[in-house]
Amino acid sequence: MTETADVVVIGAGVQGASLAFHLARRGASVVVVERASVAAGATGRSSGFVRMHYDVEAESRLAWASLPWFREWADRVGEGSCDFVHTGFVQLVPPDLVAALRANVAMHRRVGIDAQLIDAAEVARLLPGVVTDDVEVAGYEPLSGYADPTATASGFLAAARRAGARYLGGTRASVVVESDRVVAVTTDKGRITTPVAVDAAGAWAAEVAATAGVEVPVEAWRHDTAYFGLPDGRDARFPIVIDQAHEVYFRPEGRDMMLVGLESGNTIGGSPDRPQEEMSGATLDAMVDAICARLPWMEAGTLRTAHGGQDGITPDQHAILGQAGPDGFYLDCGHSGTGFKTAPAVGLCLAELILDGAARTVDISPFALDRFAAGRPIAPEHPYGPLWR
Ligand SMILES: Cc1cc2nc3c(=O)[nH]c(=O)nc-3n(C[C@H](O)[C@H](O)[C@H](O)COP(=O)(O)OP(=O)(O)OC[C@H]3O[C@@H](n4cnc5c(N)ncnc54)[C@H](O)[C@@H]3O)c2cc1C
Fold first, then answer.
1. The domain 2-48+149-218+316-373: what is its CATH number?
2. Quick check: 118 pLDDT over 60?
């Protein structure tokens, strides 16, 4: 096989699929190379939260610019469905972070996001049976919800292919650089001549970048989630929630389940190819303790299933986006456990950068790789602290 392409995207997770869609609909000839199958990495295990609440403005802007793609999928993408479920989002914080919460919601409102502060009574109305003894005020986003990450990636890829993109599954890629510029991507099925290669390889991003001679500080980050059956008499009509006081998040799943994940206790490092271990009893106990502390009625819940996944994480826990190293080499990686909800806008912005020379939709310059060497990691103005570790 010998092919040519304007752009080769390495990785068919939600990020690579979104980027391929945005490039192809603008007329670029695109090949997506995926070593396994679509959504085989972090995307297929993602909890699918779609909310704008961050302590970093650039990230909130990406999430806000992404939201319409989830809510108006049929009109905007037109293939498959992202299965967006509109629930609203509640952010709970411990008392020492209330000032940061207020400042962050004010920042979201400046951006234009429909973000509000609500009191304990309103939290109890949205989440019946919730313990609010420690809640002075909470963040609320009426427009947020959750979506199906595998369906989202598959839909983006199908729409990209409809617009002419080619997809090579079960194919591992590496980048070929000559005279400090990308000239091709090689695969076990042949060579694709191209001036542009994008590393959207999730937990494997450092390995792919190394083939282009670029060092990226992306490590594998492993994260467990579990599905619990709701007790009799409870239904799944409640918002998606991050409860930072108990370092846990949860959301409805279907009509009678709850998906739960812990914000702490995740494993960082090691080969992304090592086997995924089963969730430990200690993690399960910590999940049950955290969820029952906030929703005591979950003591009558039942464990249905657990599954883990892995993403690429960076030292400041924010993505790496943009051109780096040889001409024509771009990074769309290091999404650090939070790159599902931002994928529509990240793909749009990178397509603008690659095709027009600059991202217009959102300024993605804060996410440049050189921030690490320059000692300028992304630092929130009103931080919630190092989550996800
Ligand atoms: C358990 C879990 C829960 C999460 N929950 C949320 C959430 O609620 N909300 C949210 O916004 N984010 C969440 N995230 C994060 C989010 O899912 C990820 O940031 C996002 O899916 C990353 O997408 P990606 O395309 O960059 O990576 P991936 O989905 O990992 O895709 C990378 C792809 O690259 C392929 N690949 C690797 N090397 C090569 C190679 N050499 N050649 C070809 N292909 C290659 C892989 O096979 C893989 O399919 C969660 C992550 C996990 C693990």
1. 3.50.50.60
2. yes
CA of residue 103 to ligand 1 center, whole Å: 30
What CATH number labels 85-144+219-310? Answer: 3.30.9.10
Per-residue pLDDT reduced to its tens digit, 61-105: 999 999 999 999 999 999 999 999 999 999 999 999 999 999 999
Kind and range of the H or E run holding 314:
none
Tell me whether residue 386 is exposed, middle or buried, using C-beta atoms within 10 angstroms of its C-beta: 0 to 12, 13 to 18, 19 or more: exposed
pLDDT at position 264: 83
Closest ligand 1 atom to the C-alpha of 187? 42
Give nearest CA residue, ligand 1 atom 52.
46
Q: Which of 162, 21, 113, 82 is nearest to 340 (CA)?
A: 82
Closest atom of ligand 1 to CA, residue 342: 11
Condensed to tens digits (0 to 9), the pLDDT of residues 328-368 reads 999 999 999 999 999 999 999 999 999 999 999 999 999 99
